[in-house]
Amino acid sequence: MMSFQGRDLLSLADLSQTELTDLIDLSARLKAGKLTPQCPNQVLGLIFNKASTRTRVSFSVAMYQLSGQVIDLNANMTQIGRGEPTADTARVLDRYVDVLAIRTYAQSEIEEFAQHAEIPVINALTDLEHPCQILADLLTVQEAFGTCAGLTLTYLGDGNNVAHSLMLGCALIGINIRVATPAGYEPSPAVVERARELSRDRSEVTITRDPQAAAQGAQALYTDVWASMGQEDSAENRIPIFQPFQINSSILGLADPEAIVLHCLPAHRGEEITEAVMEGRQSRIWDQAENRMHAQKALLAAVLGAV
User: Which GO BP terms sit in this record (predicted)?
Assistant: First the structure.
């Protein structure tokens, strides 16, 4: 894992297939208690400009379990919230903390942080990508099937940051990824193109408007809220548009009989997913949420050189 030490993770496209596989395997070993890396006296700084439950708590718990410390750099209580230039903030924090996890809006902002800070910078969500979520997702798939290679994962809903990172992660690790969205809500063409480049014939990247065809025979069905953070004003208008893309018992019946159901949370039960499916035997949503902590612990240990 020495190739990770000191590195940023801004996008899953930053990783090779081997590096992504190594991170997932390390996550599994940490979860099983086979390794207990330590990062004593090292500090994780959290800069979250968007609301968070799972990401904030899982990063914090992971760092504490590594014997490190966490400082929450809330924008409302620092000069970040008063408009201090990103470059200045990055250069100062670089001298105080050992690693930064940043949740913000523009991908360019986190890239600017990384440009001006020598410490590792981790993307904890931007409008473009959510790489840490997909590390947990791939760990969950591997736990369910023993491998990722050759499986098919179908994502139904909005072509958002989660869909983007799913395409990149699945393409790298060898999962066929199908993304089904309503017209006008497709993922970024640039990200689709990059995912297809990364797949290198290991897997297929399919974009469609047909949720039934996308679900057919899939080993995993995945969804997210239909209106992401910052899109709340359009949430009600989106419901009838996205209704055919709901994960319910009917569409689950089209998938592989042993298919698993995933959701990155928070969920709007009765909208993008039904209560029955979310609480059903094929749901792995709570394992998926737990795996955020294990995957991020692996990432922190790797970039801090503890493994």
Answer: citrulline biosynthetic process; L-arginine biosynthetic process via ornithine
